[in-house]
Structure formats: C-alpha cells, structure tokens
Amino acid sequence: MAEAYIIDAVRSPVGRRGGSLSGIHPADLGAHSLRALVDRVGIDPGAIDDVIIGATDTIGGQAGNVGRSALLVAGYPEHVPGVTIDRQCGSSQQAVHFAAQAVMSGTNDLVVAGGLQNMSQLPISSAMSAGEAYGFTTPFAESPGWQARYPNQEISQFVGAEMIAEKWNLSREEMEQFALQSHQRAAVAQDEGRFDNEIVPLNGLTQDEGVRRDTSLERMAGLQTLSPGGRLTAAVASQISDASSAMLIAGERAVKEHGLTPRARIHHISVRGDSPVMMLSAPIPATKYALERTGMSIDDIDLFEVNEAFAPVVMAWMKETGAPSEKVNVNGGGIALGHPIGATGTRLMATLLNELERTGGRYGLQTMCEGGGLANVTIIERL
C-alpha cells in the first residue's frame, strides 16, 4: 500500500477561555495555522488537493463549512476545496485519518488536515442548546429508538468520567496528583522550549495560556466536586480553550514532485467504539485493537499522547494498557494546556512529532476519547 507522510505540523498557541484568542473569528483562527503551514513548508497552496478541518458546534462563526471559509481567509486559491468534519473531540485526528486514506488510496497527493475551535465564543454543546431554543430535542432524550436501547441513561461526559473513576477505583487525591503533574510537565516543556517548533504566535500570544504554575494539591483540595458525592472537580478536567492546528499529509508522488522532506510516516490509523453511556472509555479497546492490527506491543511505542479530557480517562487507560507514566503526555496535556475540541487532535500530533524528534524515539501512539463512546488511534513513525 502507498505511504502517507507527515511533512510538517503547526498550531496556534492555545488560548484560555476569555483570553488572548477569544475575540478572533473562528475562520480567522483556523486560517492562521493554514497560512503558517504552507509558508513554512514553502509550497504553493494551489497544489493542495483538499483541506479537511475538524470542528464541533458548527453554528455562528463556525457554521457554513468553516473549513472552506478558513482556507479562503488564509489566501488559498479558490479552486482548493475544503470540508468540515465532526467526530467530537477526535475531529482533527479523524481529519488526519481521512487525509492519510486519501493519499494512501491514490485519490489525492497532497492534503491538509487540521482543526479549529473558539470555545470562548461558542461553548461546548452550543449546537445542542441552539436546537433546544428552537424547540428541537437533544440528540438522545426523546429518540424512541435510543431510549429503547439505552433506557433512562443520562448521557454526559461528566457522568462518564465519574463512572470511569468509580470502575477503576481512582480516588480524588490520585486524580489531583495526576492533574498537578500535567501542569508541572507543561511548565517544564514551556521553559525548555519544547513547543517552540510547533507554535506560531498569534495576537501577541506566544505560549499556551492555560498552564497554572502556582497550582497545588492544597488548592485543588479546596474545590467543590462537579456533582454531589462525586470525585471529579474542575482541577482534573481539561480546560475550555481556543486554538487551531494544521498538518500537511503527502504521498510519495507529491514528495518527489515538490521536493518535500517528510518528518514522519503514518504507520497505523483506526477508530473503535465502546459504551456511549460511559462515553470516555473507548481509548482502551481502541489501543488494544491498534496494537493487535499492527502486531506491536505497548513496549514498542516510545511515546504516547492520550488526551486529558479528564484525569481518569488517561489513568484508567494506563492501568489497562500497562503504558508507563514516564512515556505518557510527557509535556502535559489538556488539563494544563487546554482542549480546544476541534483543534486538539492535530495539536496533540504536532506535539508528539516534535517530542519524538527531540528524544530520538521511533514510534508514537495518539488516542483520545470522543463523544458517542469513540476513540481514534494513530501510530506515527519518525523518519
């Protein structure tokens, strides 16, 4: 089968809710990474076959196929197509998968995959709330078919995270220690410039804005739980954020034709599902499936990026897979750096790619929980 190569990956800094990037229109936010990508690679954007952008809550400024709007704002020629896709938190990771599949099939030679999200302007579940305002139901509550299969089940990421914490017997104290580690690792990564090669400054912001260097276990212990009697607090959840990210995927013909230098190869792509009620547990079976498909073991992977939607998601995943903490989210994760939903997938992959290069690792595995009980897995090989 033909190969799909990662040529380069860039991203904006991640802005915190109401922070430095909050006032930027989503199309302009996405355009920032799209423009920076072609500028850095030095390629004519007119040669790009397609632009695939992940985004959720596509209403307001994120409506109307914002992926197409963003590439036009970025100055790409009008003949370049664009599409917006939604696989919830895994939207831009799925964009990479679609781009790789297009290249590997020979359908396209050069594809941009990326994502964008301005959560300050359009909070999570804005699309659901907008539907309710017009008298429409939520995606689950009043579907007879859904209720027949999942009767009287509350569908919520918070409920799912609590279920994981309970099933894997994760205490509040353990989860807060994990969250503290995320901030500490992110602060070290910033101080050592580990993100510098992937971040393209925007609106005066040069670093991710959410890292809390002054947090402590004592401060976390004083927070109220998200639900009465629960274990989760805001301290162990990912931050609401604004950002964009983009990655150039090329086939062998495009590499030769345009004189490109690949940084990595797409070794494996897959997606699997699990309980939509627990919702956030799918990275566990998805990772096991990916390793079985590739004939690899957890020990063959040098680095892991597992999205920190909530601390128990990653902690349960580590318990089940046996992946060592020292290889997982070594530069911090969504708890410290933020989780701009549509942009997170390619943000994580940019970080994974740069960290493999920094440490000399060969294989990196990325996975993330997604609404509906889904999880994508991507394994990349550094070249």
UniProtKB/TrEMBL annotation:
Key words of the record: Acyltransferase, Transferase
Question: Is Acyltransferase set as a keyword in this record?
Answer: yes
Any matching Pfam family? Thiolase_C
Q: Which PROSITE patterns match?
A: THIOLASE_2 (PS00737)
Domain (Thiolase N-terminal): residue spans on this chain: 5-252
Q: Name one GO molecular function term.
A: acetyl-CoA C-acetyltransferase activity
Matching InterPro entries, A to Z?
Answer: Thiolase (IPR002155), Thiolase-like (IPR016039), Thiolase_C (IPR020617), Thiolase_CS (IPR020613), Thiolase_N (IPR020616)
- EC no. given is 2.3.1.9
What's the top EC group for this one? transferase
Q: Which residues form the Thiolase C-terminal domain?
A: 261-382
> Which family does the record assign?
Belongs to the thiolase-like superfamily. Thiolase family.
Q: What is this protein called?
A: Acetyl-CoA C-acetyltransferase
